[in-house]
Design goal:
Layout lengths: L3 E4 L2 E3 L5 E7 L3 E12 L6 E6 L5 E3 L7 E6 L4 E6 L8 E11 L3 E9 L3 E5 L2
Parallel strand pairs: 2-11
Antiparallel strand pairs: 1-3, 3-8, 4-5, 4-9, 5-6, 7-8, 9-10, 9-11
Length: 123
C-alpha cells in the first residue's frame, strides 16, 4: 500500500523559514504531479503549490514568492521550502501525489495523500 510520510513541520517565529519533505513508499512506480495543500483551523483545505513530472511549478497567490516546491525523483520525495512565514501560514500541511504503483497497476494513476504535518507560526 502506498504511503506518504511528511516531515519538517514545527513552530517558527514570524519571518522565519521551514522546509517540509514528503517521501512516498518504495512500491511507487512513477509519480506524476506532486503538490502541497494546507488546512488552517476552522478552514477548508486549500492548494498551496504543485510540481509536475516535468518540473513545471505553480503556486497559490498566497505563497508565491515565499514558498518553493521541488522534487527528487530518485528519492520519490517532494519538498516545500517556506520563507518569510506569517501567522496566516499556520496550518496542517498535506502532501499529495498522483502516481502509479506496483500494487494498483502500472497504467492506473491514483491520488494519494499524506497524513499531514503541523506548521505553527507564532511568537
Amino acid at each position: 500500500q502506498v504511503q506518504l510520510v511528511e516531515s519538517g513541520g514545527g513552530l517558527v517565529q514570524p519571518g522565519g523559514s521551514l522546509s517540509l519533505s514528503c517521501t512516498a513508499s518504495k512500491d511507487i512506480f512513477k509519480i506524476f504531479d506532486m503538490a502541497w495543500y494546507r488546512q488552517a483551523p476552522g478552514k477548508q483545505r486549500e492548494w498551496v503549490a504543485k510540481i509536475t513530472n516535468e518540473n513545471v511549478t505553480r503556486y497559490s497567490r498566497f505563497v508565491e514568492g515565499r514558498f518553493t516546491i521541488s522534487r527528487d525523483n530518485t528519492k520519490n520525495t517532494a519538498y516545500l521550502q517556506m520563507n518569510n512565514l506569517t501567522p496566516g501560514d499556520t496550518a496542517v500541511y498535506y502532501c499529495y501525489i498522483v502516481a502509479t504503483a506496483l500494487t494498483t497497476g502500472l497504467n492506473n494513476p491514483m491520488e494519494y495523500w499524506g497524513k499531514g504535518t503541523l506548521v505553527t507560526v507564532s511568537t
